[in-house]
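Q: What structure does this chain adopt?
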Amino acid sequence: MIQPAMFALIRDGQTTLYSDNGGADLIARNLVWGHDALERWLTDRQPDHQFDTDCSAGAVVDFDAKALLWYTDDDVIGHPRSIQMLDSLIQTAWSDFEILYADGMPDLMIAAGDSISHANDRQIRIRADRFDPLESRCETMEDAVEFGEEFEPEDEYGRFAWFTILDHNDSIHQRLLSEITLDVIRNERAPLKRLMKMQSCDVPAEINVTEGMSIDEANKTIRLWGGRNITSVADAMRDGWIGWDIKCETSAGYDHQCQWSGPEGRPMTAVEALGSVVPILLMTDRIDPAMILGEIGKSFKRFVVKLVAF
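A:
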């Protein structure tokens, strides 16, 4: 189903709003074009008078602050390594801008009316009240295990949350769930004991893992890595795991969890990581792929040509 997107351009303190009925599906493609091409694409349409938070994606471009804040609720690019690849392409196209990712459309609406010039550390300081980026997660491990019973780690299309537990006896335990559930995040009903009662597993391949958690019982340390909202998971865990040191890794999380737990695992290849990115950049019959290649630069053009040839 075609989903709309909302855009705001801020220049000289003035904000201009635009919408596109199919823009949510094209948000990644349009951002990889860079800010000049995005502005040309937007200014072909009439400005809007109101910011619509019912859209599925959007971006606020603050030319005064040299900052881009964007969001999409489409999880087609759901794997952390693929997300990092997309983020690198966007950062290359917006090399003189600070790139920030919002928790939801309400954050974009706030930023559209209040410059994002004070944003730093990839976290927007203005955040919509009563917006919960974790609300779509399973409530309990039992809810997740119901899905997890069908998991086959050999299936390249399976997706898991990978838990590694180092117990007080220095023994390593590996567990899989469909995701990090809210009762684990909130430290409800002794989640470590319940995880230990689950069936053990081998180290999964990176292509199967969307988020990971390493738990060191003796040192009361938890390390997290994952997708877009993993920092929100870490923030929520700090409220529930009092006395524990909660750390969040934004890159190479799978590699670090493998090093910490012992087995090598199977990291994703560059082709696997790009597998979900390139089709989105080249999607829809409304565009000419040759035009895209021209917009996003010679270096990425060589990369895409190489990938297509592969």
